[in-house]
Amino acid sequence: MLHFDQLPAAALAQRFGTPLYVYEEQTIRQAYRRLRAAFAFTDLRLHYAMKANANPWILRLLLEEGAHIDAVSAGEVHLALAAGCPAHRILYTQSAASDADMAFALQRGVLVNAESLSQLARLGSLAPGSRVCVRLNIYLGGGHHSHVITGGPDSKFGIDWEQWPQVQELLTAKGLRLVGLHCHIGSGIRDASLLAHAVSHLFHTARNFGPLEFLDFGGGLGVPYRDEEGPLDLAHFASLMEEKYRAFCQDTGTSPAIALEPGRFLVATAGNLLCRVTSVKQERKHLFVGTDTGFNHLVRPAFYGSFHRIDAVTPRPGELRPTVVTGNLCEGGDLFTRDEHGPLPRLLPPLQEGDLLVLREAGAYGFAMSSRYNSVPLPAEVLVDGNQAKLIRRRETLEDLLTTVPTALAPETL
Ligand SMILES: Cc1ncc(COP(=O)(O)O)c(C=O)c1O
Predict the structure, then answer these.
(1) What end-to-end distance do the CA atoms of the chain give, in Å?
(2) Active-site hit among 85, 183, 249, 330
(3) What is the CATH number of the domain that holds 65?
(4) Are residues 237 and 213 part of one domain?
(5) Residues 194, 102 within the same domain
(6) Residue 70 beta carbon below 6 angstroms from any ligand 1 atom
(7) CATH of the domain at 322
(8) Is residue 373 situated within a structural domain?
(9) 184 CA distance to ligand 1 middle (Å)
């Protein structure tokens, strides 16, 4: 029988229904502590990249652990503040930021991370003399899929690092105070030397600027999704980083704080999507096992061809069979056992309608990327600790689908 912490999965399904996101609180806390403990830096700021999972109760527990926040929208800033994060612990990294986006952050005392020369100039006009961080494209990228590579010639993010003289000019012209430099090369990277390469590059560019309060190397720290995948070698990453830091401090006579922005690393393995088998059919080519969820609730397989381990809550005896696990949406790509091209049968124990399944490692970019496609309400989220379960987001109802639609129309002539 499969458990989440001390609670049987079946009991959770019975109490809260399915589909259900279940997170293990201690797994999140342990991931945070493991990451913190890996580095010797005294001033290390771990900005939780809340895009990975923005449930306010998850934010709260990471804030309790000492996390800072990486926010990428006004909504994320709003949620972080509402969860009790002090404004000075948030870095706001909005892609294609409008003046209104920046004003929102500035009014709340949140530091803006500017990612284009135009944004920097506009920030200077909006808030002359203010503190600012600058996001650079260091022309290095990586990640589990091309969609998540955020550095290099095809990336929309950041200011080309070779434009640092223009950055300097703008800072001077606008009287802005540069307090931090930032880069983020991608997501789902388990290669410590690639991450360390980015670190070297940012240290190198930072030598062109005056003393900085911090250097932020972004997130991207990967976790294994398949049994055969190894974890990121944190100790190796930390030692490479520390070596480069010592050289930087010696050369520049400064000792900036170090920031990282882990999202996936902190929450991916803590989260599971618990669902129920609603349809079993043997077709000419495949055995299709349909569930009561779909890519509206976990889009990673459909969007990236990502692999999620799938476990039966109570495996039935019998031979493993090549099985295609599907969602319940009206779309051919709505499959959980697939790659970028299409169905990829997985060897699973015999399954019957009514059985419970768990999609593993779904805590990052799971609920956070969910949608109401096909007008299906969003699932509930539960946080488990020991033998206690806390409902941290109720299941949406059909009524919720109509909350933003007026019941009567009020036409306006503009
Ligand atoms: C600026 C920035 N920081 C941090 C992250 C978090 O990445 P990850 O969840 O891979 O750690 C992202 C994700 O894309 C990002 O865009």
Answers:
(1) 62
(2) 330
(3) 3.20.20.10
(4) yes
(5) yes
(6) yes
(7) 2.40.37.10
(8) no
(9) 7
How far apart are alpha carbons 12 and 195 in whole angstroms? Answer: 38
221, 248, 267 - which closes a domain = 267
State in Å: Cα 273 to ligand 1 middle.
Answer: 22
Are 247 and 348 found together in one domain? no
Residue 49 included in any domain: yes
b/e sequence 45-74, b meaning 16+ C-beta within 10 Å: bbbbbbbbbbbebbbebbbebebbbbbbbb
Question: Could you report the per-residue pLDDT of 7-24, keeping only the tens digit for each?
Answer: 999 999 999 999 999 999
Residue with tokens 């039935």: 316
pLDDT, tens only, 281-332: 999 999 999 999 999 999 999 999 999 999 999 999 999 999 999 999 999 9
Q: What is the pLDDT of residues 111-162, one digit of tens each?
A: 999 999 999 999 999 999 999 999 999 999 999 999 999 999 999 999 999 9
Is 330 an annotated catalytic residue? Answer: yes
CA dist 41 and 47 (Å) reads 15
Q: Is 49 in the pocket of ligand 1 (CB under 6 A)?
A: yes
Indicate whether 92 pLDDT > 90. Answer: yes
pLDDT of residue 340: 86
